[in-house]
């Protein structure tokens, strides 16, 4: 398995940093989970 080279992004609601490929985009903002939407 290759190490992740994804850019880390911050959730708009809780500010937790997650890999960009796991982020949820909504209304141009980035969220870490459905709970933060």
From TrEMBL:
InterPro entries linked: Metalthion_dom_sf (IPR017854), PP0621-like (IPR049708)
UniProt keyword annotation of NADP present: no
Keywords from the named record: Metal-binding, Metal-thiolate cluster
GO molecular function, one term: metal ion binding
UniProt-recorded name of the protein: Metallothionein
UniProt organism field: hydrothermal vent metagenome
